[in-house]
Write a structure and sequence with these properties.
single chain; alpha/beta; Nucleotidyltransferase, domain 5; 34% helix; globular
């Protein structure tokens, strides 16, 4: 992911802080694990009535499934995350966006594991550096600034709309 993209906080469409939104993310990679491959991620944003608000997709070369899943969630976070201090000072800011991912690895990374890794100097329990650390640290840095999404695991390929 481009460094300048990691430092931006952007909003899209006709959303207001009063809008309750749901974001579905997915990533994949053809020839995952091979030296030459291509992957990508997609993001779909809907309102509480399931009206389509926004879609985004991006392709990447020489990547992995996990990297694309992380990129999708990070994209949703950077573009739709809510700064929690706004919830206390702005009465119109009520809802934290709900983001769905079918990747247990990504949901666990962003909801739990990254905090322990950060405390240990970005070292996992097996004494190795986490893969995709650039994406994880980008998410973590914005999280530390108070930005939030509600990240939930969803079963993949289960007929969700």
């Amino acid at each position: 992911m481009d460094q300048e993209k990691l430092s931006l906080k952007i909003t899209h469409g006709e959303l207001t802080s009063m809008s309750k939104i749901y974001i579905y993310t997915d990533g994949s990679c053809l020839a995952n694990g091979k030296e030459i491959n291509e992957g990508g991620f997609g993001v779909v944003v809907v309102d509480e009535n399931e009206n389509l608000l926004y879609t985004y997709k991006k392709r990447n070369k020489n990547t992995t499934n996990n990297r694309e899943e992380l990129r999708a969630i990070l994209y949703a976070f950077l573009n739709y995350g809510v700064q929690t201090k706004d919830m206390w000072t702005n009465p119109n800011c009520i809802y934290i966006p709900v983001v769905y991912s079918d990747s247990a690895y990504c949901v666990n990374t962003f909801n739990s594991w990254m905090f322990n890794w950060a405390k240990k100097g970005w070292i996992k329990s097996d004494n190795k550096t986490p893969e995709n650390l650039d994406l994880i640290q980008a998410y973590y840095n914005w999280y530390q600034k108070g930005y939030r999404i509600e990240l939930r695991k969803i079963k993949g390929h289960a007929g969700h709309k």
